[in-house]
Amino acid sequence: MFMFLPLILVFTYLFEFDRHININTFIFWVVIVNLVVLVIGTIVLALNKDKLKRKVKATYRSEFFYLIFLFVFGLLGIIVLYDYMGGNRAYIANILVVIFTGLTFLSIYLGKTIFKFDYINKK
Fold first, then answer.
1. What is the pLDDT of residues 91-112, one digit of tens each?
2. Where are the domains of the chain?
């Protein structure tokens, strides 16, 4: 859910919705919807914890690639959010490098620990 807002902002930037709507109000309502879905999803997962615990897979490759897909669009969305908030465009490359490094480290860590997918050490 962390990358939901940047993912939505990629499409608003792509289709130029910012020319037709107030982008600050739109971001506010997307954050509200994001928080509601986050709370409902957390409650549903907590209630179904025992049932979901029994479904064990050997690897989670498709889920890992889904996460990478969200990271890529989230990275673009964070840059769009930076642009919408009036940031200096000269620093976009610096921000991209820092966020890309952080997301790469996070994806490697999550791939090893949660998704049981170690794409660095091929066996």
1. 888 888 888 888 888 888 877 7
2. 4-113
